[in-house]
Each structure stands twice: as structure tokens, then as C-alpha cells.
Specification:
The chain contains seven helices and three strands, in the order αααβααββαα. The chain is mainly alpha-helical and about 170 residues long. It has two domains: about 1-55, no CATH class; about 60-140, Winged helix-like DNA-binding domain superfamily/Winged helix DNA-binding domain (Arc Repressor Mutant, subunit A, Orthogonal Bundle), CATH 1.10.10.10. It has a three-stranded antiparallel β-sheet with strand order 1-3-2. β2 (about 105-110) and β3 (about 115-120) form a beta hairpin. The chain is elongated, with a radius of gyration of 20 Å.
Length: about 170
């Protein structure tokens, strides 16, 4: 993994060593893993931020249009389902959807299965924006792993998969 801030692995080891000396009772067998995951998550977040900025999207807007695109054709969801899948409040979802409606990336349409409800639908422009954003974000995230052998990535992925099942 490359990072302009230097070798994160050494920083984590130094942090763990300081806590081992200063307050060892706060450390658990999972402490180093937890910190390394936080550092990796931050590196991935930092890699994606400029991509979204270039595309004129906030993180929340990205999450909404990508969730709708991921849902498959016809790229629509009920607002409550969208909120639940993104862990957003209904008010937060409404605010983001309002921004996306103004930009022409999503539209509100009557729910074909519930005459009283609505669904959020990606417009053609929204589909294109979602696909461009997810492609660019994926490429930026891939660059974070430059120099890491594929075998190492595969082993780490398998280990994390096992941890998340546990």
C-alpha cells in the first residue's frame, strides 16, 4: 500500500508500543488489527475524496446514486429502503435526494406498487454519473494497494472475510 504520509505500518506499531508502555491494560489481542483497519479505511477514504470532488459529488450523493445503480434496472428504490441501505435518517436521505433532483441525477416518481408512495429513480444522467463515479472511485481505491502482491491481498481478504463471519 502506498501512502504520501509514509509507512503506516510503522506508525501503528509505534502507537501500540507506546500504549504497551503507558497503559497496557487498554490493549487487547484485537487492538493492532483495529488500528490497522482504521488506517486502511482512512487511506481509502482519502483516495476517494479527490475523485468525488472532481465529479462534483458529495460522499452522500455518491452513496445514493451508486446504491440506486447497484439496485439494477430500473434503478429505483423506495426512500425508506434507500435510507435503510445507506444507514441515513429519512431526513438526511430527503436532503440528499433534493440536491440530486435539482441536479437532474434522480427523479421522484409514483410507486407502481403503492399508489400513495414514491420511488427515487436514477435519470439517464444519474446512471452515467453513478457509473463514472464508481469506476473512478474503484480505480482510486485500487491505487492505494500499488505494490502489494496479489497473493497478499487475497490472503488479507480471506482473513477479513473470516473475521466478519465471526
Amino acid at each position: 500500500m502506498t501512502d504520501s504520509r509514509g509507512d503506516q505500518g510503522d506508525r501503528v506499531a509505534e502507537l501500540i508500543a507506546v500504549w504497551q508502555r503507558e497503559l497496557p491494560e487498554v490493549l487487547h489481542p484485537t487492538s493492532e488489527l483495529s488500528k490497522r483497519l482504521m488506517v486502511l479505511a482512512d487511506a481509502l477514504h482519502q483516495a476517494g475524496r479527490p475523485v468525488l470532488r472532481e465529479l462534483g459529488l458529495t460522499s452522500a450523493e455518491f452513496d445514493v446514486i451508486v446504491a440506486l445503480r447497484r439496485a439494477g434496472a430500473p434503478y429505483r428504490q423506495k426512500p425508506s429502503d434507500l435510507s435503510r441501505s445507506l444507514f441515513l435518517s429519512s431526513g438526511g436521505t430527503t436532503n440528499v435526494v433534493n440536491q440530486l433532483v435539482r441536479r437532474g441525477l434522480v427523479a421522484r416518481e409514483p410507486d407502481p406498487d403503492d399508489g400513495r408512495g414514491i420511488q427515487i429513480l436514477l435519470t439517464n444522467e444519474g446512471v452515467a454519473a453513478a457509473e463514472e463515479a464508481v469506476t473512478a472511485s474503484s480505480a482510486a481505491h485500487h491505487k492505494v494497494w500499488d505494490g502489494v502482491p496479489d497473493e497478499t491481498v487475497e490472503r488479507a481478504t480471506a482473513a477479513l472475510r473470516a473475521l466478519l463471519r465471526g
